[in-house]
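Budget justification aside, the reviewers requested a transparent look at the raw inputs and outputs of the sequence design task funded under Objective 1. We therefore reproduce one unedited record. The lines immediately below are the structure tokens for a 268-residue chain.
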């Protein structure tokens, strides 16, 4: 498991099978990759302002990485090698990403905006938070927020960076299919672009946990894809009928809509 704030030499980052190097004195912001027998070497001349979640789209498009482990390692390496201090590097990444999301410049902006509008009540548990951009967005509005993710190092990173962003929230490393929180813990439970990362059986367990933990509402968002995007760790696809079938299993009022993907909203 990658440690996103582990020490590394200035301008260089090493993972188990990935090396990322920042090139000095280069104006071009092109990212190049060379794959050897045992190591993928990435070279770049990115600047701090280039660090945002939108960089993931460039990495996916320009480097054509098929393995999720390669994709994640390259992203960590680009961020860490661009700014020498690890906390400063991640704070820059978070600030730029949040600015893009809130301004509407990010491709994911409409999803976060819609999800925020669907939250009911004053407390939220966000399942599969990843970096926690959505959790931070909600916490900044004054909601009581718990961000959760199966990746403990990502939750440690979020807990470390959140104070740098003047944000207060709780973090919890856990499997979304087995959440160590009591019944009816939060007004709303969200699962924003999570279920495409797990198989059907695991997805059903996650939905059941979301319903158990929520007092009022569960909000699920998924992308509508023709084929799963492997480099992002997607393993299945959804359509409107698949979301309706999921809603039918719960036994409460629900609505399925389409807006930059699919939405399943359960009212308990």
């Amino acid at each position: 498991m990658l440690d996103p704030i582990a020490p590394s030499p200035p301008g260089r980052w090493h993972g188990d099978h990935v090396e990322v190097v920042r090139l000095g004195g280069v104006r071009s912001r092109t990212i190049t990759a060379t794959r050897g027998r045992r190591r993928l070497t990435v070279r770049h001349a990115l600047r701090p302002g280039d660090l945002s979640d939108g960089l993931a789209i460039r990495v996916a498009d320009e480097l054509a990485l098929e393995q999720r482990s390669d994709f994640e390692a390259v992203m960590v390496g680009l961020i860490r090698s661009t700014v020498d201090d690890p906390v400063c590097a991640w704070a820059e990444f978070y600030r730029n990403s949040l600015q893009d999301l809130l301004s509407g410049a990010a491709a994911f902006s409409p999803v976060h905006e819609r999800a925020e509008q669907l939250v009911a009540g004053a407390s939220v548990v966000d399942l599969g938070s990843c970096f926690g951009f959505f959790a931070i967005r909600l916490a900044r509005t004054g909601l009581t927020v718990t961000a959760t993710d199966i990746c403990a190092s990502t939750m440690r990173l979020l807990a470390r960076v959140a104070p740098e962003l003047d944000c207060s929230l709780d973090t919890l490393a856990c499997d979304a299919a087995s959440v160590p929180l009591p019944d009816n813990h939060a007004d709303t439970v969200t699962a924003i672009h999570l279920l495409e990362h797990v198989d059907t059986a695991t997805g059903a367990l996650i939905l059941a946990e979301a319903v158990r933990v929520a007092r009022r509402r569960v909000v699920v968002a998924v992308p509508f894809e023709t084929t799963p995007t492997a480099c992002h760790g997607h393993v299945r696809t959804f359509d409107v009928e698949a979301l309706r079938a999921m809603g039918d299993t719960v036994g409460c009022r629900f609505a399925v809509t389409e807006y930059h993907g699919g939405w399943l909203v359960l009212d308990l």
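The mean pLDDT is 95. Residues 9 and 166 are 28 Å apart (CA to CA). Computational costs for records of this kind are itemized in the attached budget.
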